[in-house]
Write the C-alpha cells for this entry.
Amino acid sequence: MMFELRCYVDEQEVVNQLIHLDAKYCSQYAFTDEIYHPKNGKYNLNEQFLRLRLYTQTAWEQKLVELTYKVKNISSVILKNRKWQFNNKEETLPHLLDYELAFMFKRNGYEYKTDKLHIFLEKIDGLPFSAEILSKDHKAIEDFFAKIPSAIKIQDSVPRLIEKTLINKIKFLSIFLFYK
C-alpha cells in the first residue's frame, strides 16, 4: 500500500530538511495537467479523476503524454492508479469520449529521494509552494512534515484545489460584475 501526503510549505524550510536528511536530488520536471470529468453524472475530484499529463520537461523514462485514472479513499490511500502512455495527445482521444475537459494547469517541480521517501517539491499554477511525499511508510511521511514548521496539510487532491480556486474566482467576478 502506498501513502501520499501533500503540504503547503516554506521552500527554504523544506530544502533545509532535505539537506538534513541527505536526500538525493533526482530530477527537474514540468508539465501541464488537463483534468477531465464524466460527461454525465456527479464527480468528486478528491475521490477519483482522469488526468491527461503533457510533459514539457522530464528525465523520467517514459513517453511525453500520460493518461491517469486515480482513485483514493478518505485517508488518501491510493486504491487505484492506472496509467497509460502515448506518443501524442491525439492518441488519447478515444479514451476521453465519455469525459469532458474541466480545466488545465501547469506544474513545475524537483524530485528527491531518501531510503523511505519519494519527495516532489512543486510550484503549481494558482497554489502556494508545496511538497508531496509518497511512501509505503505513513509514519515516515508524518515525521518529515513534523520537522517543517510551516507545513500545512492539504486534504484535497490537487485537481480539487484548482477546482475550488477557479470556483472562487468565478464567484468573485460575478459579484464584481453585479456591482459594476
The CA atoms of residues 90 and 155 lie 33 Å apart. The helical segments are 11-20, 138-146, 158-179. Residues 158-179 form the longest helix (22 residues).
